[in-house]
User: What shape does this take?
Amino acid sequence: MTHQHHSPAPGAPTAGGELSLAQKASLTSGAGDFVTQAAGDVPAVSMSDGPHGLRLPKEQGDGGQVDLHSAAPATCFPPAVALGSSWDPQLAGRVAAAIAAEARAHGVHVVLGPGINIKRSPLCGRNFEYFSEDPLVTAEVGGAMVRGLQEAGVGAALKHYAANNQETDRMRVSADIDERPLREIYLRAFERIVRRDRPWSVMSAYNAVNGVPLSENHRLLTDILRAEWGFDGVVMSDWGAVRDRVPALRAGLDLQMPGTGGRTDAEVVAAVESGALDAGALDRSVARLALFARRATAADGAGAGEVSYEAHHELARTAAERCVVLLKNDGELLPLAPDSGTVAVIGELARTPRFQGAGSSQVTPTRLDVPLDCLNAAADGASVTFAAGYALPGSDADTDTAEDLVEEAERLAADGDTVLLFLGLPAQDESEGFDRDHIDLPEAQVRLLERVVAVNPRVVVVLSNGGVVRTAPWHDRVPALVEGWLLGQGGGAALAGVLFGSVNPSGRLAETIPLRLEDSPSHLSFPGEEGHVRYGEGVFVGYRGYDRRRTEVAFPFGHGLSYTTFTYSALTVLPAADGARLDVRVRVANTGQWAGREVVQIYSRGPAGSRVARPERELRGFASLELAPGEEGEVCVSVDRADLAHYSEREAKWRVAGGVHHFEAAASSRDIRLTVPVTLDGDPSGILLTGRHTLAEWLEHPVGGPLLAEAFARGRTDESVGAMADPVMRRFLAGIPLDVIADFPQSSVGPEDVITLSAKVAAEAAGGEPPTDDE
Assistant: This one.
């Protein structure tokens, strides 16, 4: 979709009415920390951090300045790291609607989220704010949050656009990315959400892409975001991300946040008056900002309605239940029976839980479910004992008592029938603003685990972490492992429900857990050096890289166990009548003894023999269904044909490869249950062949191949026939440009033939429907 932009004449009326130049300039920067400027009949817009709950300032000083260190209570829902593992867009939409209700109650017009950046490396300190290593999971869950907010009358600010995948040097670093991975991985979720869900605003990131800061990146902000994808909302900066206001406006950045007290407004006025900035660029931004402000404030005065924080807490608990991932359950140790003897709960994180990350998304919860308290409540007939086992950094515990804590934990573990061992990352290990140095648990916690396992093998490890932690080699020594992520204020009750069986876990990993950090596809090029980070792994991010390299992992993308079992059957793939999509259907049966929810994942593998490097498989869709024991149901996943395309850098467009595509119904990227082959026609080639293209490229081209074969047949000699018949010589010639071959004395085509053939290919492309390509 292409939008034509027309510049109003300087001084002409805008969507904001008759405004002076100074007023127009003022609209393009904030009035304070979290409020925009009002001018003329354009109202001010109030914003709040809030990807998983509102960060509400308790006090607001003069000029809109806020206290960032204290916040009024709001419901703290599971952060994106957990919500992504729900694989449940509908749930994400319900969470977003609840956040919107609280926003309206507090006069907040726009929530700064969701964050949909890809988890390129497990070291990124802000991974707890992002959904997945996969663009589709990110787009489906993140897009549902955008819809949930905006359908409730509160704007979303889709962030951080784009390629903001690390915290190291985040305000300056250039993410140097080839066009194909940029399009297929890092822009894909943004594109899907912008086209389908129409966010009111997009937040540009701090970093640069290929040397151009995002706030001044005309290609990303205007050429791609607006002209290609049809975005008609406001582009705002991340807080403090604008380096030079004038080129930023010229590039398509509408709003600088926060305000600068008028300093950069004066720069804009001076630039327009001197002719350095086209007045039309400013007018376009003002028109977009006026529309944005009216849309965001449309419900003002209508009454926000009553907010039930108790109902929102219950939703937070329900959401957390969906996010818990059961990684391992040997011998069906879980769930625990309510009367299962003595349960030794070990780990300070059970008593002092981590339930969210640190930084701009930090929420003051309305209440907090503590896992230890909830376990006591859930253990109907069991006896629950507790030992801290370790001290959290910053606590009052003296380091000299560390051995005493371990010995106390050993005694309880030895006396218990089952051990619930709570381990995880302390808050100081992961936050906005810095990346992690490793993915290991604290050494003291690993030593505690070893001591506990030595006295009682019936150990369930429960993890609390915002970023992936390494579970090898110790996960082989424990029979059960639960990934609890950061679960928000209802996480304690959710964990107790899963552990004691009132909840059947159905979460699935939205990112791979590697055996070692060194196995991560981005390891050798993260976080870069001297102001640049090279995305050297290309499209092979996350499971795409692990699977293509056949790297063993601790737990694969999409993995998650249940207390019941499911079998798959009757996989079918049928193209729709218009050919624009394929409907993938599969039947699922609950063959166990528990009611449960299964997340069916649909992957595809591209045609064999492609000259374009492709992942082993890529997620194309997913759906879930809840089944009682013995019940059977069917899921249908619609896959757009366009989603099967790769981005051709040479042709600067998306292309679906012709040939046999294999569609897979799976329980993870490495648990493929059923496979069906489907033959698809490829997209026409957009290449206009010249003599500089190789023999292989000519022969593989849908138009040039037959023309060249005919020319060879007409001009063949004994020598040329012999050369083409020799397989070694054919391979030798395959990589040589045709104009070089044409100069060989024994060649059956000459330089004049190359010119003629190239002209025929160009004429065919311009005037006809060429056959499809099998590349």
